[in-house]
Sequence to fold (376 residues):
Amino acid sequence: MENTEKAPNGVNLEALIGTVTAVKSDPSLARFRFRAHNRWVAGAHSKTTIQGFYGTGKEDSSRKNPFVLEGDEPPVLLGGDAGPNAVEAVLHALASCLVVGLVYNATARGIGIDSMELELEGDLDLQGFLGLSKSVRPGYEGIRVICRVKSSATDAELQDLWTTSQEISPVLDIIRNPVPVFSELKKV
Amino acid sequence: MENTEKAPNGVNLEALIGTVTAVKSDPSLARFRFRAHNRWVAGAHSKTTIQGFYGTGKEDSSRKNPFVLEGDEPPVLLGGDAGPNAVEAVLHALASCLVVGLVYNATARGIGIDSMELELEGDLDLQGFLGLSKSVRPGYEGIRVICRVKSSATDAELQDLWTTSQEISPVLDIIRNPVPVFSELKKV
Fold:
């Protein structure tokens, strides 16, 4: 396993070690606040703008332009299909999260990843969303993830890496465990 | 409140009523399976492709092209900033979901929405993701949502609408309550 290059798996290993060391010495640097702003367009269509966030003790202003994410529903769910729907976006968030955790931890362990693909699916009974049944939850009943990795590491090393990736995954934690959500509607 | 137009709030009211009626008479139509495919690019960067899904008793093939969502991390989190990160994508999913539920229920109730914006923020302690503390959860400690609505409806009508929108929101349910996730890593 070649581990002397500066950016194995495309990750700056020195910066990764530096971040871990910095947070160990000052845990307040680990406090992050992420934000999103959403504007309704029409029907099921809305646009989310994501740019600034707080972290490492300061406001981050490195993004010169915001990211804009479209949300909509497909025609069968009465939308105009301008973007994936909200529960599809959850699958994206989960995949993206698991990838980052796996790649960062692989890099820290000196494991090279040649390629990686994830397949995700989630089952949902629309009776909950339609308000037709109080006993049917509106969200996913279950989600399945298959991660296919090409690597010269052993199967045991990869399984251990996968276990760690799940343990430290923010989005997997958000999905598997309760997160308090405080909400407020204001008439303007 | 004008409710005789065919698409109040940009929602096809006849289709909405038709969907509810159809699912009431055959609840199996409400079973949906959503999917996502993610491919790692390099470092924290991955791309999620979203296209087909199963619902209303059949595979949906209405989308001629897939949606592609980019996931990455900002520089301070060792990424190349090719897209919002995974926990920011969660905020987008939540916003998009609440908007759809609110607009559909408003339409069913004959409430017109003139405009709507949502502000979301979530607090996260990176010590969990970095594996530096077993007592710090990797996911959000809490999320706040403020929904600002312009409408001629009364404040009481809008608050009731907001309550319903939360009760039937798939993504809010996924975030507030546990969802089982089955995962598997395969070496290829």
In short: Strands of chain A lie at 31-42, 45-50, 53-55, 58-60, 67-71, 113-125, 142-151, 181-187.
